[in-house]
Specification:
The structure is a single chain. By secondary structure, the chain is of the alpha/beta class. It contains 12 helices and 12 strands. It has a 12-stranded mixed beta sheet. Strand 8, helix 9 and strand 9 form a beta-alpha-beta unit. Helix 4 packs across helix 6. The longest helix is centred in the first third of the chain and has 19 residues. The protein is globular and about 60 Å long.
Length: 336
Amino acid sequence: MNTTDSRPFIAVTMGDGAGVGPEVTVGALLDANAYRISRPIVIGDVHRLQLGAAALGARVEIVEISEVREAEFTPGRINVIDPHLLSEDLEWGKVSAEAGNAAYHYIRIACELGMRGEIQGICTAPLNKAALHEAGHVYPGHTELLAHFMGVDEVSMMLSTPKVKVIHVTTHIGLIDAIAKIEPGLVERTVRRGHEALVRAGNPQPKIGVCAINPHAGENGLFGYGEEEEKIIPALEVLQAEGINAVGPLPADTAFFLAGRGDYDLIVAMYHDQGHGPVKVLGIEAGVNITVGLPVIRTSVDHGTAFDIAGQGIVEVGSMIEALSQSVNLASIPVK
């Protein structure tokens, strides 16, 4: 191994084998930039990846390895750690416990490699929550699964598009529960995680816009019950006193417009749809989902398993290419 090679090792998980995961995984690793910037190891199923390559009409050598150090990084070759959990006749586009269980274990293996320091980033193709649950793994999604395997109590979801980045204070809970959960400590920790991720990615002084909870940021008490004053402003005062450029609370209906024109490097959304809606309008094709606060950075496509087009070779692979690129940008430098 070349000891001067600074390309990070990235574990690329195949996701749900019945969805578009095999296709976007192959498509991303055949991109001309993939091996120039990283040393990717796929955690997935060799046969399924071969089917994905065939669907794309791609010529590629898919090689099973048992550990990271066996990998060879040459264009046109894909290295795969395969736990052999999928049957060869798995049907495309259908929810199955088999595929859900396999996707769960691909994440487990990637997390174990990360915790051992064998890889410096994780890039995930989409899994299917219904399939995950059918397999008996009851987690809301990837984010919570990664936190579980890495022993982390609290992480944040960041969505990144070419125009806007957004980090969420709450994600996969109901709106009433989200409002109840928001408190100054959680807001402060979320902003810190976002700030740290942007600094790590090369922006030493990011400008962060923090959304309000209520319309028009409460309109001086006209809307809501003082949530901004109680839950958000105390956190901003602490952050600003430390020199973190966090501004708000901002009316959410204009915050994303301002970020889109370049006023803010990151927007802090208070709940799931407040952040996801604008991002998906602005750039789902190149959107990347980033889990912030893990020992190993994780990025993902910002789309689902797309069962309706799985196996047809028509999926757009740009989001997975961008997810791999963002993983490299946020990864630590390998020790050797």
